[in-house]
TrEMBL record:
Domain of life, per lineage: Bacteria
Organism, scientific name: Flavivirga jejuensis
Upper lineage: Bacteria, Pseudomonadati, Bacteroidota, Flavobacteriia, Flavobacteriales
InterPro entries for the chain: Rhodanese-like_dom, Rhodanese-like_dom_sf, ThiF/MoeB/HesA, ThiF_NAD_FAD-bd, Ubiquitin-activating_enz
Name of the protein this chain belongs to: Molybdopterin-synthase adenylyltransferase MoeB
Recorded name of the encoding gene: moeB
PROSITE patterns on file: RHODANESE_3
Amino acid sequence: MSIKDHLQYLKDTTVKEVDVRSAHQQFADNQSVLIDIREKDEVKSGSPTGAVRISKGLLEMQIENIVLHKQQVVLLLCASGNRSVLSANSLAQMGYENVFSIKGGYKNWKDSGLPFEVPKMLNESDNERYKRHLLIPEIGEEGQMKLLNSKVLVVGAGGIGSPVAWYLAAAGIGTLAIIDDDVVDKTNLQRQILHTNDSVGTSKVLSAKKRLEALNPDINIITYKERLTKENVDHIIGVYDVVLDGTDNFNTRYLINDACVKHKIPNVHGSVFQFEGQVSTFWPSKHENAPCYRCLYPSPPPAELAPSCAEAGVLGVLPGLVGVLCATEAIKIIAGFGELLIGKLLVYNALDWEFDTFEVQKDTQCKYCNSNKNTEYPEYVEYEDTCTL
Ligand SMILES: [Zn+2]
């Protein structure tokens, strides 16, 4: 059978087609995912505005990260509407029920005056700096662009926030923000690797900014020398794609959870105690069974049971490991590959080298992550300032 006959056969039997105008309408109504499956060289002169761009060869490997469920409408676009027929057939065989090939491809899209954009590409310096990322198919140029276009907020420039910020700056997170109102103390240097002896007594966020800019001058470092409060949290958190909770007090931890749930932002959480570290991602808007931090711990422990931060001990390298795990999770969320720690709590114990992953159930009574348009979102709560260590 010639390729032409084969395409015709697929169109007659398994593959559904859609014209560019209907495809655009469906995409504009937020009912579908539009994937441009052309090669990098073809995409660089233009691609439908807002489309996900994954070349045909990588589509089957990456589709799970893009399409949330098998019933979701998927619109595939190539140059002229032939390759998209073949890919639509492959996805149908993988169980995707509503895949459409766009008739006439990008040529028709452009000729019909539908919106397109010229995607930003990496420059020479980026190609060099991020070369080892570009060589991994799961990241590649597409993933690196996502990292460069992303905005991440790290709460706390301490034991966990330090390695998080170091690695996210190195990875090329385009806008990296750090919030902390503290100054560097000599007792911090045992684990807070963003700071050095000469920064003792100076602001933690400025010390962090200095080091991160020296590491990667091509990204934008934003600093907030303040505490997150009920008053400023909406204003600060709302603009970020991912928030990393590396805080050391319960008041801020619950505030981060409540604000992230409200703004539908993934909250990557890391915590340490003596020899044990915990990591999880709370992102209830991602899917209906995904819990929030309050599903796991509905409220902070009473103040008399929590030590003050100055009294609690911790093995210095432990927050380093937890921070690296958190940074890994943030990169996976943004670049869109691999499994995430949604609904899972990763617990690490440095004494016996054990890594365990526990399931975290969604609390169906949790009034934070179960709130919807018909119920008022709960007010932010101010707790006594107790230490999470
Ligand atoms: Zn919840």
